[in-house]
Design goal:
The complex is a heterodimer of chains A (229) and B (959). Chain A has ten helices and one strand. Chain A is mainly α. Chain A is elongated, with a radius of gyration of 29 Å. Chain B contains 26 helices and 40 strands. A seven-stranded mixed sheet of chain B has the order 7-6-18-17-16-8-9, with helices on both faces. In chain B, a hairpin with a 2-residue loop joins strand 3 and strand 4. In chain B, helix 3 runs parallel beside helix 20. Chain B is globular, with a radius of gyration of 28 Å. Classes of the chains: A mainly alpha (229), B alpha/beta (959). Chains A and B meet through helix 4, strand 1, helix 6 and helix 10 of A and strand 2 and helix 24 of B.
């Protein structure tokens, strides 16, 4: 049986790509590049976002403690309950006995502070869910930040406004370094350091004056070993 | 010769690191001449390249997924009632004392959140002066040893303290009141409370016998302790002594020795140090003039010294040229120095040698200045003691013992005499062992009680100079352990007591006035008021030189306490096992040290197992060629070959007690040595991190103090801007005694892991500071040079330029910061480091997360994981803590406010750290000395750590 040579196709002679394949390939390449760049950008944005870093999220707590009431309305000084903030690495969390200073006299029978009463009775501590947490390879010291004019609200936000404790800032390295590179603009006047609310107006002193006032030596602030060792 | 080098501009003899290297085999011990030891960069066993890549891919994928998990924030758990201390997270320091062979060394213990984490010296204590030795640094690890005994054992099975007390009461009630024949075995102790309790026990049981056993030498000579003041000595003679390294007063001695070897303001009044010894010791190799001699030969030389000092002209008879040169120079210098001539004998020397050496001080006139006698602080010659382990053996064999009580001692391993009667001990009606480990003796006794660590209980001890200290606990006994005090009290009264009350009872006796006030002061300072009086000694007639008439030809064996594990008591301490022995650089082993000429005569090389037969005993041990060893003497250290030490110490090394005479002598003459044809793998760090034969240790003559200065070098890079502090360090090679206290202090401070013998053999040891050893001159009596090498913190740092991820960067204060969380483990930095001071975590060397060892870790230093480079950063955590304190007070950091861990531990104050931008700081003053030099200065790395050259005061040869 004779075959029409036109219908005979030799696969070895066939061109692998046709002209339109080039176009398809270019479009695909562009899409791939876009995908890589786009997903990278999205991942970067996502992991630096306030959402991922739990900004503004209030975890459940054993006692519905309100900073708005205690710090904002009653104007109890931060150092009353966080006593080592000026002298130690940790700010200090109030012990059961600290709370009982007042609450052995007021609201003693309310449901709200029952866990406190139970803690005092049983001797087992109250377990708070942590709101602000730094990675283990960061060595942070509260006292030096207070001593150099970083106010509580600068990192913890307007705690006097929120009924439940929420994270005020993302506390990621980029955010920390931003201040360590240019601390002057973030410093507060001595009288404002322990205010539970950020003041409505910026400080009267200029950043340069504040840096001089607090004797901030900026050279060491961006050394890696200042925070990581 | 590529591997050897010479001082520029001087005719110093060649430097070498091993015999092979001296003979021109530059890469001996390092196959193929690689920079790193064989196997340093090989895959772990059982993992080929292909499966490694597979796992790499899998872990990347899984690790990537893991990174997407949001980590729990955890919880904050405040106190219910806050403690007194306002800053629980801040380190606190408590004064106490560490027992050193029964004597006290005052220490301050760092405690963080209730955990003791680091031991420092107590500046108020005369035997510490703020510094420590290596063993003291390692003592903290024993506290957290997972192998520690945790429960009372009865015949090897778990029991309780109450059952023990009941069984003891039953034992006593079966016998007429007070008639029980009890044998009490302790180590000689200085503890007033323990001696009082033992005395009360002996009073209560008239048939009780008290024995004292230690495998180590007594520090007493005729009931008194010789004591030295090296700072007042112009000429020092050491007869086989290692008192700067292994002695209850070694820190004070090292401080005094350093005072005579330090260049201050370009001047030095250097002491001249002569040593005669059979085997190189840390102290002996410091000598300006050193003479190796076998024990019998030493006696001949001592006879010659005696004659030469008496002016007897026949002293040269029978001496070789080197020997007569040594004796001639020594006698000349001793006579010329009189009151400033100090003669010191090792405790392991025979008593006639020690007596004669001590008497030289009286003869020369230094008694009362550089030399003094002290009343004995330890109970070696206590009147109520019935003798040593041999007496106990005889008592057991003679049936005079019904109950054996062994307190804080391990005689079933350390006593040759008692090893023979272990079956008899097991058959006694009652036997109990108190010890920190269920060790060899625990296996021999019916009962074993866990002992409290000295940081867990109250106690008291006296220092070598008689200063008393009250020991206070830092932590509750973790395993419910008891102290020896408490056990004696249980045995005597049947009550379960409290060591606090026992110690207070002892010190309340006879003390007038407000006891509580004084007690609190003693506990706070770590030093009690009571001091022993200086020992008065009646003048005596001249002491004859040691008899040398019986000098026998042939080989002699010299046993010695091990430089790291002592008599075996620290065998389960991994820090000490992995710390290279100071002179051999051996890790995780002991060896029979043979001189180079004896090695070639026997036809052995490193690792060949030889059999040593001595006085009926027999031991097989691998040979190690030791330059500077006396030709006809083999030295081997005790303390190894343990079978119930714990998971670290079991089966490490060879048991030299097998050839130890039971009378406690250290030297045996007339031994027979044969080769076995077997080999044992010895691992030394001598070849690790070699600086390829370049000249690193400089020496200067004490008279001229001239060090050739290199021409100033310029750099294309501009210098780093200096604003504020500029940290720098100076290491004085002239005062460094090479004791390795710095290495362990760094290990404790910086959470440095232990990697084990196999990993060390691949060059993967992790010590951030190492002590290099070099030899100079003829192999049979070379000069030993040691050099501590931490990170140099170069200003033009080669490591920083090659890191692809910026994990090692320069700080504004001049440190080469190492950022662990950035490091991806390329190891480029280590390859580019000319000093080889960077350490890489090839494997995960961390303890498991639930390991008790983690309690020792310094919370201010990251615990590094696998694949991360690490190195010295001048204890940057201490710098940061001091800076925060200073900045809070708006003041500059004071000079001396920051002590690096190595500096703080150094007994000789050889390491000084500080601000080189401050011209009045101590480190600036040191760097201004004429003997200051930089390591590998020709590379222009501009290291911040510089060295002071070793000052030699050899003097002229006798003519």
């Amino acid at each position: 049986m004779a075959m029409d040579p036109k219908t005979l196709r030799d696969p070895h002679n066939e061109p692998l790509f046709k002209a339109r394949d080039t176009t398809i390939f270019r479009v695909l390449l562009a899409f791939a590049a876009l995908l890589v760049i786009g997903s990278g950008t999205m991942a970067y944005a996502y992991f630096h976002s306030g959402y991922w870093n739990r900004v503004g999220i209030a975890p459940p707590q054993p006692i519905l403690f309100s900073h708005r009431h205690h710090a904002g309305e009653l104007k109890i000084d931060c150092r009353n309950c966080h006593p080592t903030v000026e002298t130690g690495a940790f700010a200090g969390m109030p012990s059961t006995h600290t709370c009982l200073t007042c609450h052995s006299q007021i609201f003693t029978n309310t449901v709200m502070i029952r866990p406190l009463v139970e803690s005092a009775e049983s001797g087992s501590p109250i377990e708070w869910n942590r709101v602000n947490r730094l990675p283990d390879h960061v060595y942070f010291n509260h006292s030096i930040h207070i001593a150099k004019g970083v106010a509580c609200f600068t990192c913890h936000g307007d705690v006097g406004k929120d009924a439940l404790m929420v994270k005020g800032q993302p506390l990621i390295m980029r955010w920390c370094v931003g201040c360590h590179r240019d601390p002057g603009a973030r410093l507060s006047q001595p009288g404002d350091l322990f205010d539970a609310l950020a003041p409505a107006k910026p400080p009267k002193a200029t950043p340069a004056e504040l840096l001089a006032f607090y004797h901030v030596r900026t050279a060491v602030l961006t050394n890696c070993s200042t925070c990581h060792h | 010769m590529a591997a050897t080098s010479q001082d520029p501009g001087s005719s110093a003899p060649a430097r070498w690191r091993s015999i092979g290297e001296l003979n021109g085999l530059a890469n001996e011990g390092r196959d193929g001449g690689d920079e790193f030891p064989p196997g340093a960069s090989e895959w772990p066993e059982g993992l080929d390249r292909r499966s490694f890549l597979k796992r790499l891919g899998a872990s990347l994928a899984l690790g990537g997924l893991g990174g997407c998990m949001r980590r729990s924030n955890g919880r904050i758990v405040p106190y219910v009632i806050p403690p007194e201390n306002a800053h629980p997270e801040r380190p606190e320091y408590y004064a106490t004392a560490v027992p050193v062979e029964g004597y006290a060394r005052g220490i301050l213990v760092e405690s963080i959140l209730g955990r003791p984490t680091k031991i420092e010296g107590n500046p108020d204590h005369p035997e510490s002066l703020g510094a420590t030795d290596a063993a003291t640094q390692a003592a903290i690890l024993d506290l957290y040893d997972p192998d520690r005994s945790r429960v009372p054992l009865r015949a090897g099975l778990t029991s309780t303290r109450e059952v023990f007390a009941a069984e003891w009461a039953q034992f006593l009630s079966a016998r007429p009141a007070g008639q029980a024949r009890i044998a009490l075995l302790t180590e000689p102790t200085t503890s007033p409370s323990l001696l009082r309790e033992v005395g009360l026990m002996l009073d209560a049981f008239p048939n009780a016998l008290w024995f004292q056993h230690t495998p180590l030498a007594s520090y007493e000579v005729d009931g008194l302790q010789p004591d030295y003041d090296f700072s007042k000595a112009g000429v020092i003679l050491s007869v086989g002594s290692d008192c700067l390294y292994r002695h209850p007063a070694c820190v004070r001695y090292a401080r005094g020795y350093a005072a005579g070897r330090r260049v201050v303001d370009g001047r030095i009044a250097a002491s001249r140090f002569y040593a005669i010894e059979s085997s190189p010791s840390v102290t002996g190799v410091l000598a300006d003039v050193r003479l190796p001699a076998s024990p019998p030969r030493m006696r001949v030389i001592m006879g010659a010294i005696d004659k030469a000092l008496l002016g007897n002209s026949s002293w040269q008879a029978g001496l070789g040229a080197q020997e007569s040169d040594f004796v001639g120079r020594l006698a000349r210098d001793l006579r010329a120095n009189g009151q400033r001539a100090l003669c010191v004998a090792g405790e392991e020397q025979p008593m006639d040698v020690r007596r004669w050496t001590a008497s030289l001080n009286g003869r020369l006139g230094s008694e009362g200045s550089a030399f003094r006698w002290l009343a004995s602080a330890r109970s070696d010659s206590n009147q109520r003691s019935r003798g040593d382990a041999r007496a106990l053996r005889d008592a057991i064999a003679g049936g005079a013992v019904e109950a054996l009580v062994v307190l804080s001692s391990n005689p079933a391993y350390t006593s040759v005499a008692l090893r023979g009667v272990i079956p008899a001990i097991s058959k006694l009606p009652f036997s109990v062992h108190l010890g920190a480990y269920a060790d060899e003796t625990a296996g021999a006794c019916a009962w074993h009680l866990p002992e409290a660590h000295f940081l867990e209980c109250w106690g008291d001890l006296r220092a070598y100079d008689g200063t008393a200290s009250v020991l206070q606990p830092l932590i509750e006994p973790m395993w419910n352990g008891l102290s020896a005090l408490e056990v004696v009290r249980i045995l005597r009264s049947g009550t379960l007591p409290d060591s606090y009350q026992i110690v207070r009872e002892c010190w309340r006796d006879g003390a007038a006035g407000d006891f509580d006030e004084r007690w609190n002061r003693w506990v706070r300072l770590g030093v009690a008021d009571s001091r022993a009086a200086a020992g008065a000694r009646a003048p005596r007639g001249p002491v004859a030189a040691p008899d040398s008439s019986t000098e026998a030809p042939g080989l002699s064996l010299l046993l010695a306490p091990d430089s790291n594990v002592l008599d075996g008591r620290s065998a389960n301490n991994a820090w000490l096992q992995e710390l290279p022995r100071p002179l051999t650089r051996l890790v995780w082993d002991n060896a029979a040290l043979v001189s180079p000429s004896l090695a070639s005569r026997l036809g052995v090389e490193d690792g060949d197992v030889i059999r040593i037969a001595a006085r009926g005993g027999l031991v097989e041990a691998p040979a190690l060629v030791m330059p500077g060893q006396a030709t006809d003497c083999i030295a081997i250290s005790i303390g190894y070959g343990r079978w119930r030490a714990g998971s670290v110490g079991n089966g490490v090394g060879f048991d030299a007690y097998q050839v130890r005479p039971d009378d406690g002598t250290w030297g045996i003459e007339g031994i027979e040595v044969t080769t076995t044809g077997r080999r044992h793998r010895l691992v030394t760090t001598q070849h690790h991190f070699a600086i390829e034969g370049r000249n690193t240790v400089r020496t200067v003559d004490a008279v001229s103090l001239v060090l050739p200065k290199p021409p100033p070098r310029t750099s294309l890079y501009g210098g780093w801007p200096r604003n504020g502090n500029a940290w720098g360090m100076s290491i004085d090679l002239s005062t460094c005694i090479g004791c390795s206290a710095c290495v362990l202090a760094c290990q404790a401070e910086n959470n440095i892991p232990v990697v084990g013998k196999d990993q060390v053999s691949r060059g993967r040891e992790m010590h951030w500071i190492r002590v290099d050893k070099y030899f100079e001159g003829a192999p049979d009596n070379p000069r030993f040079l040691s050099e501590p090498v931490p990170c140099m913190q170069c200003e033009n740092a080669p490591c920083e330029l090659v890191c692809p991820v910026g994990a090692t960067v320069h700080s504004s204060e001049g440190l080469n910061d190492m950022v662990y969380n950035r490091c991806v483990g390329t190891r480029y930095c280590s390859n580019n480091c000319p000093y080889k001071v960077r350490r890489f975590n090839f494997l995960n060397y961390r303890a498991p997360a639930d390991s008790i060892i983690n309690l020792q870790k310094n919370p201010n230093v990251t615990v590094r994981e696998r694949g991360v480079m690490e190195k010295c950063t001048y204890c940057v955590q201490r710098i940061n803590a001091a800076r925060i304190d200073a900045e809070r007070e708006n003041r500059p950091i004071r000079d001396g406010e920051i002590l690096t861990a190595c500096q703080q531990a150094c007994p000789a104050e050889a390491i000084v750290f500080g601000n080189i931008a401050d011209p009045s700081s101590r480190v600036s003053a040191r760097k201004a000395e004429p003997t200051d030099y930089s390591l590998l200065e020709e590379l222009n790395t501009r290291p911040r750590t510089t060295y002071l050259a070793k000052v030699l005061n050899v003097g002229e040869t006798a003519s």
